[in-house]
Write a structure and sequence with these properties.
Radius of gyration: 15 Å
Strand order of the largest sheet: 1-2-3-4
Mean pLDDT: 94
Shape: globular
Helix content: 25-40%
Largest sheet: 4 strands, parallel
Number of helices: 5
Strand content: 5-15%
């Protein structure tokens, strides 16, 4: 079956990128998104690719003091969540990102289908109850490339919560 016959959906890609472990997970998940035939990666919303005026805070930390950049980037990400078909969050049990928590809450309030993706080596570790509760399903990074976003389902996380 060719890709033209497969329905693709857009995702909002939530992830931290503030530590080496977060960056590694970000890169793994982004690679899997690009491989997934049911994700329209070209039209999905990746916050790092939509920073206000193209200025990335990881390259320009002084932007955290710029009210215009802060407001526009936050509101741009909110538009990204609202306009995407689904919400995908890279979650590291040992390095939670508060920004992802806010994004999860907004996606849940908007009724978006939410997939939390956990690196294989961290899958099964305890995760935050509120993050767990927001998710419709929790999968391993190794499952993402083949996850069918056209056949959505609810599933419990196999690890504990706190």
């Amino acid at each position: 079956m060719s890709n033209e016959n497969i329905r693709q959906k857009t995702v909002y890609f939530a992830a931290g990128w503030f530590s080496p472990k977060q960056t590694a997970a970000y890169d793994q998940v982004m690679a899997a998104i690009k491989q997934n035939k049911t994700i329209d990666d070209k039209n999905s919303y990746v916050p790092l690719e939509h920073q206000y005026k193209g200025l990335r805070v990881d390259e320009h930390p002084e932007l955290l003091a710029d009210k215009e950049w802060q407001t526009a980037t936050f509101n741009g990400d909110c538009v990204g969540i609202k306009s995407s078909d689904l919400f995908l969050c890279t979650y590291l049990p040992d390095e939670e990102d508060i920004g992802c928590g806010v994004e999860l809450g907004l996606a849940k309030a908007l009724g978006k289908y939410i997939v939390i993706v956990i690196p294989d080596e961290d899958y099964g570790k305890p995760i935050n109850l509120m993050s767990w509760g927001a998710a419709d399903t929790v999968i391993k990074v190794s499952e993402l490339a083949d996850f069918d976003f056209n056949k959505l389902y609810y599933n419990f996380y196999e690890g504990e919560v706190y």
